[in-house]
Amino acid sequence: QERVFSGVQPSGNLTLGNYLGAIRNWVGLQQDYESIFCVVDLHAITVWQEPEVLRNATREVAAGMIASGVDPKQSIIFNQSQVRQHAELAWIFNCVARLGWLNRMTQFKEKAGKNKERASVGLYVYPNLMAADILLYKATHVPVGEDQKQHLELTRDIAQKFNSDYGVEFFPDVEPLILGEATRVMSLRDGTNKMSKSDPSDMSRINLTDDRDTIAKKIRKARTDAEPLPETPDGLEGRPEAKNLITIFGALAGKSSAEVCSQYAGKGFADFKRDLADLSVDVLGPITEEMKRLTEEKTYVDSVLREGADKAAAIAEPILQEIHEIVGFLKP
Ligand code: ATP
Ligand code: MG
């Protein structure tokens, strides 16, 4: 049986990167797969979160998923901490994964920064918890942005090592689904950095909660170079900021980069940015409005998350029981 699992951290506002790289793709997948979508609050606390901010962000991220078209009637939507089995399986995987594997993870290196001694242990074992999120449901397909590819390879390694250590065919092969044109949306301030909801600069990203003027300002001020737009995508070589804006335009308009380039060939960025801002507002505006409506109605989102947690736990618990059996935990 095929099952989709994916998650987003409530570590800030949802960004255009989260939308184009992940959430938008979930909407289509939920038609064809049994789908489980998680607000991963256990992951979020691998870096400091103010408790009240975390609680609000959890509601807001869930509202963002629903406003984007993830349907709580079709898919399971819940927050991770409500399903205790995630943390428990993560512990077991801490004992399966090898230090050498985790030492190669680039996200840890980026997020820990220069002073690794001061990073939380949770940030280091983050990929083991992510493997637990997916394998707790024996999910087979995981729609994510390009940045999560390495963590998914680790998930496969953990599944395979567990299967071979215990001599079982228990966990399935997990397949990443990296879909669409904008699999790695870059920062508006630096075309070599990923757009992230936890970036200290709000000007680096477009949030799903931004209003029309804020979006227009952020795009107007987005870094570009002095050259006009090229005739073909070949002319974007060595121009990461220009390439990023054209990719975003294409993803929002449902056009290829080649089509966008030919539309704006030889023009300066001022016209292009004005159109990109209008296009962004057209696509994101209705989502922002719906998100606002849903978060103002607090009990609705909370009840979706509560029901989702019950449904998720009902799938997870029997699988975890089997894992206990395989590992050799005594149940008198
Ligand atoms: P943080 O900075 O706290 O890590 P984030 O913006 O990276 O936040 P996550 O919650 O870590 O968001 O990731 C949620 C999903 O969004 C993942 O599937 C991830 O691959 C995807 N994603 C995140 N950033 C981008 C981006 N810039 N472009 C495309 N996909 C992205
Ligand atoms: Mg991230």
Mean pLDDT: 97
Give the ordered list of helices and strands. Answer: EHEHHEHHHHEHEHHHHH
Overall CATH class of the largest domain: Alpha Beta
H/I helix tally: 13
Helix content: 40-55%
CATH architecture tag of the largest domain: 3-Layer(aba) Sandwich
Q: Largest sheet, described in full?
A: 3 strands, parallel
- Count the beta strands: 5
Topology:
Elements: E1 3-8, H1 16-32, E2 34-39, H2 41-44, H3 51-67, E3 76-79, H4 85-94, H5 99-103, H6 106-112, H7 121-135, E4 141-143, H8 149-166, E5 175-177, H9 212-220, H10 240-253, H11 257-264, H12 269-296, H13 298-327
Parallel strand pairs: 1-2, 2-3, 4-5
Helix pairs in contact: 3-12, 4-7, 7-8, 9-12, 10-11, 10-12
The structure holds adenosine-5'-triphosphate and magnesium ion (MG).
Motif ('KMSKS' region): 194-198
Pfam families: tRNA-synt_1b
Protein name: Tryptophan--tRNA ligase
Can you describe this structure?
The protein is mainly α. The chain folds into 2 domains: 3-183 and 298-327, HUPs (Rossmann fold, 3-Layer(aba) Sandwich), CATH 3.40.50; 210-292, Tyrosyl-Transfer RNA Synthetase (Orthogonal Bundle), CATH 1.10.240.10. The chain is 55% helix and 7% strand. The protein is built from 13 helices and 5 strands. The protein has helices at 16-32, 41-44, 51-67, 85-94, 99-103, 106-112, 121-135, 149-166, 212-220, 240-253, 257-264, 269-296, 298-327; strands at residues 3-8, 34-39, 76-79, 141-143, 175-177. The strands form 2 sheets. A 3-stranded parallel β-sheet has the order 1-2-3. Strands 4-5 form a two-stranded parallel ribbon. The protein is globular, with a radius of gyration of 21 Å. It starts with a strand and ends in a 5-residue tail after the last helix. 43% of the residues are buried. The model has no long low-confidence stretch (mean pLDDT 97). The protein binds adenosine-5'-triphosphate and magnesium ion.
